[in-house]
Amino acid sequence: MYGREGNTLHCLLGMENKSVQYKLFNSKVTATISVSMVLFLLGIVAAVLFMSKNLSDQVKENFIFKLTLKEVVPDKDIVSIQRALQSKPYVKSVRFVSKDVAVKELKQQMGEDPMEFCDVNPLPNCFEISLKANQTQPDSLKLIQADLMHITQISQIDYSHELLDTFTHNIKAITVAFLLVAAVLLLISFTLINNTIRLLIYSNRFLLHTMKQVGATRSFIRKPYLRQGLIIGVAASALACFCLGCLCFFLDDLALFVDVKNPMLYVTSFSTILIAGVFITELSTYLAVNKYLRRNLESLYLI
């Protein structure tokens, strides 16, 4: 009879243990999915910020600065000027436009030959340069313009000053707006992930108290939970990165005006997801465990 009762008790305990493990496994999976959804949204914001910065740089580098040469400049001086311009640290590209080329381009734009009304080509020789994106600030442009005017063969510098200033102002406003959205989303992410981790540890609050009562140190008690938080953070980050990669692949198939083939886009967004996922889950786990370790047994029943 004792053996039969012992076997029955062992079976019941085994079933209860499996039930507890199953519930614990389900809670970890639920927490991982919940965290990954928040990190996925955070990754989208990081990707949008990167793409807007990349698009802004491309637009700035497409602004053309026209350097008009004086009437008579020898060919050897033109070559030396082009080399000097290419060596400037703020110049991205240089293109020499001769009088004949300028007339052909004007003919294509107007749809008729302007030389039919002129005996002499009135267009000057010029250089068209584009600056590096980080050199298009108003203060930098003044210094660049003063430096270029030191080239004696240049008579005039023309560029869309007002258009560039307007674009720079709008980009700054959009960037600030996106950064505010990112900050708010990061705060929301921390709150949601923190609540998820706290609920996960909540079921073990009496176990934490028991371990504290038998003499376990706080660092010893925190260690397995921090390891668990690290695993959840890495797993949730991997899932969020996978979802973001699928989204970028889908956008690439739609052929939208979005550059999703830049490897730095994935490096930036995936790094943001991983760092945020691991840091927030570890910090939330540390704070949650400490919260229950500071409480006495009576207060644990009231939580």
Written account of the structure:
The chain is α+β, with helices and mostly antiparallel strands and 303 residues long. It is built from nine helices and four strands; from the N terminus they run H-E-H-E-H-E-H-E-H-H-H-H-H. It has helices spanning 2-61, 75-86, 99-110, 138-148, 161-202, 205-213, 218-254, 263-293, 297-302, and strands at 65-69, 91-97, 126-131, 154-158. A four-stranded antiparallel β-sheet has the order 2-3-1-4. Residues 1-24 have low confidence and may be disordered.
Mean pLDDT: 78
Oligomer: single chain
Q: What proportion of the residues form beta strands (DSSP E)?
A: 5-15%
CA(first)-CA(last) distance: 44 Å
Strand order of the largest sheet: 2-3-1-4
Instruction: Please count the beta strands (DSSP E, at least 2 residues each).
Output: 4
Q: What is the helix tally?
A: 9
Q: Evaluate the radius of gyration.
A: 33 Å
Helix content: over 70%
Structural category is: alpha+beta
Secondary structure elements and their pairing?
Blueprint lengths: L1 H60 L3 E5 L5 H12 L4 E7 L1 H12 L15 E6 L6 H11 L5 E5 L2 H42 L2 H9 L4 H37 L8 H31 L3 H6 L1
Antiparallel strand pairs: 1-3, 1-4, 2-3
Helix pairs in contact: 1-5, 1-7, 1-8, 5-8, 7-8
In brief, what are we looking at here?
With 303 residues, the chain is an alpha+beta fold. The protein has helices spanning 2-61, 75-86, 99-110, 138-148, 161-202, 205-213, 218-254, 263-293, 297-302, and strands spanning 65-69, 91-97, 126-131, 154-158.
